[in-house]
Amino acid sequence: MTLNYSDIEPPGPPLVSILRQGSYLIASIHTALNDSELTRFQHDLIAQVGRYRARGVIIDVAALDVLDSFAAHTLRTIARTAALRGASTVIVGINPEVAFTMVQLGMRMESVHTALDLDEGLLQLDALTAPPDRRPETGRTSTTRRPDIP
Hints:
It is built from four helices and six strands. The protein is α/β, with parallel strands linked by helices.
């Protein structure tokens, strides 16, 4: 599905594309969105999570050279809302300059999974959505205690 947001902008190239791949949704933001477009994107994406019973969502922001505080907040909100609807979210493609600026400004993406690119994002979603008995080993054991630690 491609969204043009025709009631916000004159017709032209799509601002956002949301594609379904199996049980995942892949949303690519093609250009900077204003606050009302971000809000519309949020509502549209979450509606599609329910409509398609998606288990995972990838949001690709590689085309963005700026990510303001409202956009970061909206991405966190999408991830939390999708989680409440049963879908894990991974944000991919944050370019180095944007990441650096976000750190300098204290903008946090806490509790949001991120990956370098779409391929890594898909691998991360596979790990996040796999049944517990099929999840890859992380090298940590949470149920085994060392005998010298109470």
